[in-house]
Amino acid sequence: MFRKLYLAYGMLVLGGTGFAQYHGWSLDRISQLKNVPKSVRDNPGSYRSVYGFYHHYTGGK
Amino acid sequence: MSAGTPPLSNPPPKPQARALNCPQCGAAIILRSLGHAETVVCASCHSILDAKDPNLQILQKFDAIVGEVPPLIRLGTRGKLRGVDYEVIGFQRRSIKVEGIRYDWHEYVLFNPYKPTRYLTEYNGHWNDISVCKELPVTQFASANYLGEIYKHFQTADANTNFVLGEFPWQVRVDEHATVNEYVKPPRVLSSEKTANEVTWSIGEYMYGADIWKSFNLPGSAPQAVGVYENQPSPVSENVKGIWAAFLAFAVLLFFLMAGFDFISNKGTVFDSSYHLNVGEPKGEASFVTDVFNLEGRTSNVEVVTTANVDNSWIYLNYALINQDTEQAWDFGREVSYYHGYDSDGSWTEGGQKNSVVIPSVPAGHYYLRIEPEVDPKHPPITYSVEVKRDVPVLGFFGIAFFALLLPAIAITWRSLSFERMRWAESDHPPIKIGNSDE
């Protein structure tokens, strides 16, 4: 019974991996926005990034 | 009968139990084994009587402990075991002592007038169906060979008979001792009992309490089995090899899947440009947009690779991948930082001059990047490049899949090893030896 369950589970894992790869999934977290005005192309400063005020790492060891 | 003799009008009567009286206390004694028993025990005064003697000579009298636990299967119960009808005619409680601790088990004598006597043993809810060996096993070192199968030595102990009830096909006595050697090959156990006069070999097969209750139509449910018994079949061990074989097959398939996707993936560069950032220049709008580039094919991922010649510094870029036609955007930020130095442990490095991000499920279309860089104001001029690739394989998924396939195989193997460790912990060959207290 364990073997059959594992076989089914394995097929599911392989199928899921192929599906994810084919549809271009990613492990990175990206914010998706809609209704970005076309005027941004002419005036990039009018666009406000989600990460605009993100506190990022500034130092070394 | 001659040809002229008329047929019997009445068939011979079915065998019935014979009732006698105990010569010690006068209580009724029922003999079920039709003359096959050697001894019979009076349930009232616990006298062991000679069943072959018409006067039931008293062979031994023992004092039963007050409040003795009765047999789980009452004497006289009938049931079908392995397709054969049996009646329970005898019961005994036996024990061994290991490191000062007494372990009791029960044995039931099963009778069928046309079949050899069978026995059921029960210990902590674990049952075994026992019968006498047809051939003499061959013992060698810590194993025994019986009918071509090798059994591993499990335990040697001195067994004592503490309580008897019913009928027995041998001269049973309370306090009789036998040296018991047990060899196991789950679900079977090979057992030898050596007394002063003889050695008896028997073979047993593990049975579950529920099956016993069903065979003998007993009320209620069987007592729950406690712990792991010497020949209890493992619920997982027989699957371990098969599962590892399946894992290897899946790993190979995963490799070919990864190789296949790597082969068919476009991985083409659709945009590549370098930029120069001089923080000393007069400040205006820091953000800018790139030229429009085309993403073709099915909905797939996009990789944005940022490379910068940072050295003990950093650069941060706010990105937005914007579809020129659908007003859809993917917003993300990436930092490229690289630090290195030397301390008491030696030289060290941290970070790198390259950063990569994969944007998921981006449909085909015309896109451009909006980029807004940030650097340390005191930093000298920086040069950085941005490369955009379409349809790249994400190896992380294959890594996750590999471990997702590996973990169940490890878990089942661990469970199997734990089960076997519990089994052999009760044997003369435990997997972990416990030191003496005076060491």
Describe the protein:
- The complex is a heterodimer of chains A (61) and B (439).
- Chain A has 61 residues and is mainly α.
- Chain A contains 1 helix and 1 strand; from the N terminus they run αβ.
- Chain B is an alpha+beta fold.
- Chain B folds into 3 domains: 18-233, no CATH class; 238-261 and 397-425, no CATH class; 266-392, Jelly Rolls (Sandwich), CATH 2.60.120.
- Chain B contains 3 helices and 26 strands.
- The radius of gyration of chain B is 40 Å and the shape is rod-shaped.
- The termini of chain B are far apart.
- Structural class of the helix and strand makeup of chain B? alpha+beta
Largest interface here, residues on each chain? A-B, 46 and 65 residues
What Rg of chain A is obtained from the alpha carbons, in whole angstroms?
21 Å
What's the helical proportion of residues of chain A? 25-40%
Tell me the fraction of residues in β-strands of chain A, as a range.
under 5%
* DSSP helix fraction of chain B: 10-25%
Number of strands of chain B: 26
Order of helices and strands of chain B: EEEEEEEEEEEEEEEEHHEEEEEEEEEEH
Number of domains of chain B: 3
Q: Biggest β-sheet of chain A, characterized?
A: none
Which sheet architecture does the biggest sheet of chain B show?
A: 8 strands, antiparallel, barrel
How would the global form of chain B be characterised? rod-shaped
- What assembly state would you assign to the polypeptide chains in this entry? heterodimer
Question: For the CA atoms, what is the radius of gyration of chain B?
Answer: 40 Å
**Order of helix and strand elements from N to C terminus of chain A:** HE
Percentage of residues in strands of chain B: over 45%
> Please, how many helices of chain A?
1
SSE-based structural type of chain A: mainly alpha
Spatial sequence of strands, sheet with the most strands of chain B: 7-8-9-10-16-15-14-13
Report the uncertain regions of chain A. none
